[in-house]
Amino acid sequence: METTIKATNLTKSFGDFTAVDKLNFEVEKGEIFGFLGANGAGKTTAMKMLIGISKPTAGDAMVANYKVSTQADLVKKNIGYMSQKFALYDDLNIKENIQFFGGIYGLNAKTLQQKYQQVVENLGLENYVKQLVKNLPLGLKQKLAFSVALLHQPKVVFLDEPTGGVDPITRRQFWELIYEAADRGTTIFVTTHYMDEAEYCDRISMMVDGKIKALDTPKALKKEFGAETLNEVFLNLAR
Predict the structure, then answer these.
(1) pTM of whole model > 0.85?
(2) Nearest to 25 by CA among 234, 230, 211
(3) Using CB atoms within 10 A of its CB, is residue 232 exposed (0-12), middle (13-18) or buried (19+)?
């Protein structure tokens, strides 16, 4: 299998405080990898290094075959990223957002038009095409943001709490889009605080105080800790 993410002793310190402490893991092509941790555990700091916006203090990582320490610009061009807080421009409509973000990734006008039509059709957005994104239902906005993150067919997509605030049915629909992308060979790296969502991942890591304390399939972790749920596993690790 092709490895699309590999962290080797990945570390980030701020003065005497080590926020991320020697992370070591690999993620394969087409894998859905869950990255879990409580607030302050270091997962956001780790993700910032992996997407090329923060330089490691020590160690390194390869993402989409590029080093985050020395090839951050190439990392950014070959990944997709979706944040819960900011993923689209609210004051632009669907087409304008696709044209803007697609243009950043170097897609030509003909390709952008094709992508626009595909997104509208796949998500059933025909009745919303003239509306500003800020007026879309939250669930549709999140699914649109995910589709925009995939416009340039990146090898890896990073999703930071992508389903926060949406209802369970919409969350399930969103995960269907994730599965479809993974089936096409896109690696999905996702943070979530919904432990039931973490069950959908192929493998998950659990961070506590800047370190990965557990990493395996959901089924294997529950068996290892004698737990019925991943929440129980996490509580055991956090003690």
Answers:
(1) yes
(2) 211
(3) middle
